[in-house]
UniProtKB/TrEMBL annotation:
Belongs to the NADH dehydrogenase family. Keywords: FAD, Flavoprotein, Membrane, NAD, Oxidoreductase, Transmembrane, Transmembrane helix. This is FAD/NAD(P)-binding domain-containing protein. One of its GO terms (molecular function) is oxidoreductase activity. Residues 222-585 form the FAD/NAD(P)-binding domain. The lineage of its organism: Eukaryota, Sar, Stramenopiles, Ochrophyta, Bacillariophyta. It comes from Cyclotella cryptica.
């Protein structure tokens, strides 16, 4: 009987608009159009559009529609018993009411429909006090604003009990017994199957056995991808180039496995072993243009590109600027090092690209040579002090990059200063690595136990760690530091600071990032709410940038370090890491390849209703549509990040490993066992078999013959 009641209610509400009001945050109002209510009935759960005084609201909807309410956090995995009956947070009175209603299913449908018919409607252009100013009530809108109407009515109380479930699940999300996010894992598994099929379909075109038809080439949407980092590379790997005409614009013609830049900067691995050319990532992309975007017009949908200067010194003239039209612009331009406010910070080297690693590798070798000159040889105090200064390396920033670089430099020094076998045995005992970090803990992204293990490992290797320390100035051969004082008796860190001068030979800046100039130009054309406080672009749950003109929604997608993404709607942004960027890039590739209408919210799969009067457009793929509808994707699911954990090398054959699946910890370990895991994961995560073979060879080569410090 209950199922029939729900079915009938579902049919009765198909042609109505529902107003959702969120009392405590009135700017979060939504209208669910009737087209969004026409999904399959399978798993339908009905609730009533209610507004109660503690600030929660719910709507008549299918379970899928509930999952699409992007800021309400309703789980699509609800089972009927969770919604229709009591939960742990419900009062005893509510439980009795629900039991009473459960025994009166014969009158539930008529009573509830009567309540729906008696809801106050308005035919005037009236703005509800908690609605957005530009949102008008329609004739079909239901608005219920009194709490007593719900509490005093068993039927409404029963159907509004989803409130308690929602509040409970915010604290205790529905998962398996082990707490694993099985819904995300299942979704990623099916996505992987889809990606494999896509790669198999690509083989005949890559081998030259088949060519795209002229019709396909004319109807493909143009997607301009800015950048060649993690997000862009993941997008290229997954995108269906039979449906998308992809143009990649980047001043760098390759993808870099950035976690191994520290290893490349000291010669543990070679640069080419951890890179992949843009064109090799997906041979079916339409074009790669070596240059950088300098301006964009989001209304006219074009981007201006300044081409790189090639054959410098051989070809005269300034490289031209070209204009590219697009249907979708994917902005994944990365970030730059944030060293603002520190005089002389431009003297420090960086570690964000292969060019940075090459410069650092050369500079390290030059420091060794500089410290080996005759003017500082000998055992006098002055000679020892000067020699030590020339091979003192300051690393600014105690995140994973800074810690890994400190560990790699330690290994290099141990290698090249070995007696009889090392290249610079005379420098043994003079080399210093100093790690300055502004916070109280190294690698704050890791759990506390691993942070302490990182500190212990650094100190054990002789690496000097300076916590709660800021770099105030970098000069020629020195750094001015400001550190918090420590009480000598209690060991408590005080708020008072003291300054010191550190003589050094080389500084590497691994602290902080900031948006690149192109992001500022893009934000100048977006509405004010698109700007996050740190200058990044706020994106919605489908990675779309906000637009003044709603018809342009979905034309600009922002990924990676340029995007500020609040997955849970609680103000906490996802970190700007390679893992987040890679998953988001693959997600957007599927979103575009599947043909979702990005102008609608949530994005709608085209031609999902066989009874539609409007014909399907040229992008309609009946086989793909059936597959996606089988998966329940009449509407695109939002992006959901699956955290797999973090790894960091600390030197001396030791590493930190924090392995997790979502929020569920799997393994936290440090030391040599973690080092094996670190190497295994980094080897597997290489983007191609070629890279895995080359990296393995480099590791064996550096182990057998030592690191090559030749400066070329």
């Amino acid at each position: 009987m209950m199922v029939e009641v729900i079915r009938n209610l579902h049919r009765r509400t198909l042609n109505h608009h529902i107003i959702i009001n969120y009392r405590s945050r009135p700017e979060r109002d939504y209208r669910i159009e009737h087209s969004q209510m026409k999904s399959n009935f399978l798993g339908t759960l009905i609730t009533v559009a209610v507004i109660i005084n503690d600030g929660f609201a719910f709507v008549p909807a299918t379970s899928r529609t509930s999952a699409r309410l992007k800021r309400m956090k309703l789980s699509s995995s609800y089972q009927p018993k969770h919604v229709l009956f009591s939960t742990a947070e419900q009062s005893e009175t509510d439980t009795k009411k629900n039991a009473e209603v459960g025994s009166k299913e014969d009158w539930l449908e008529s009573d509830l429909l009567a309540k729906l018919e008696n809801f106050q409607t308005s035919t005037d252009d009236v703005v509800h006090p908690m609605m957005e100013p530009d949102m008008q009530l329609l004739d079909e809108d239901f608005v219920l604003t009194t709490k007593s109407e719900i509490e005093n009515d068993p039927a409404l109380n029963l159907l509004s009990s989803e409130l308690s479930v929602w509040k409970h699940l915010r604290k205790n999300p529905l998962r398996s017994d082990g707490g694993l996010p099985l819904d995300i894992i299942l979704q990623r598994t099916w996505d992987t199957v889809e990606d494999i099929w896509q790669h198999l379909r690509r083989i005949p075109f890559e081998k030259g056995w088949a060519e795209l038809s002229s019709e396909s080439q004319l109807t493909r949407k143009t997607v301009v991808v800015l950048g060649s980092g993690w997000a862009s590379h993941a997008l290229l790997k997954v995108a269906d180039c039979q449906k998308l005409r992809i143009i990649v614009v980047s001043p760098i013609n390759h993808f870099v496995f950035t976690p191994m830049l520290a290893s490349a900067s000291v010669g543990t691995v070679e640069y080419r072993s951890m890179t992949e050319a843009v064109r090799a990532a997906n041979p079916m992309i339409d074009q790669y243009i070596e240059g950088k975007a300098v301006s964009v017009d989001v209304k006219q949908k074009y981007v201006d590109v300044q081409l790189n200067s090639l054959l410098d010194g051989l070809v005269e003239g300034t490289p031209p600027t070209i204009r590219l039209d697009y249907d979708h612009l994917v902005v994944s331009v990365g970030s730059r090092v944030d060293d603002r406010g520190v005089p002389g910070a431009d003297r420090a080297l960086r570690l964000k690209s292969c060019d940075d690693a090459r410069k650092l590798r050369t500079a390290v070798g030059e420091c060794f040579e500089y410290a080996s000159r005759p003017d500082c040889r000998g055992d006098s105090v002055e000679s020892v002090v000067e020699r030590t200064k020339r091979v003192t390396f300051l690393i600014v920033g105690g995140g994973p990059t800074g810690v890994e670089l400190a560990g790699e430099l330690h290994d290099l020094f141990e290698d090249v200063t070995r007696k009889h076998k090392g290249t610079y045995p005379n420098l043994r005992g003079n080399t210093r690595v100093i790690l300055a970090h502004g916070g109280p803990d190294l690698v704050p992204q890791f759990e506390p136990a691993l942070r302490q293990e990182a500190l212990r490992s650094m100190k054990e290797k002789g690496i000097q760690v300076m916590l709660n320390t800021r770099v105030m100035e970098l000069g020629d051969g020195f750094a001015r530091l400001s550190s918090k004082k420590v009480d000598p008796t209690t060991g408590i860190i005080l708020e008072e600071r003291e300054e010191s001068i550190l003589p050094l030979g080389l500084a590497v800046w691994c602290a902080g990032t900031a948006p690149v100039p192109f992001v500022s130009d893009l934000l100048s054309q977006l509405p004010p709410e698109a700007r996050y406080s740190d200058g990044r672009v706020k994106v919605d749950r489908w990675m779309r940038a906000p637009m003044e003109d709603k018809s342009l929604l979905g034309s600009v997608i922002v990924l990676g370090d340029a995007a500020a993404f609040d997955e849970m709607g609680d103000g906490v942004l996802l970190p700007a890491t390679a893992q987040v960027a890679g998953q988001a890039g693959a997600y957007v590739a599927r979103l575009l390849s599947r043909g979702f209408d990005l102008e609608s919210t949530p994005p709608l799969l085209p031609c999902v209703d066989p009874e539609m009067q409007n014909p399907c457009d040229v992008f309609y793929d009946p086989q793909l549509t059936r597959w996606l509808r089988f998966r329940g994707f009449d509407f695109s699911p939002p992006f959901r990040f699956l955290n797999l954990g973090m790894l960091a090398y600390t030197g001396g054959g030791e590493a930190l490993s924090q392995v997790q699946l979502g929020d569920v910890p799997i393994l936290s370990v440090a030391g040599s066992v973690s080092y094996l895991l670190w190497r295994s994961v980094y080897l597997v995560k290489q983007v191609a078999t070629r890279n895995r073979i080359l990296v393995t060879f480099d590791w064996w080569k550096s182990k057998l013959f030592g690191r090559d410090i030749t400066r070329l």
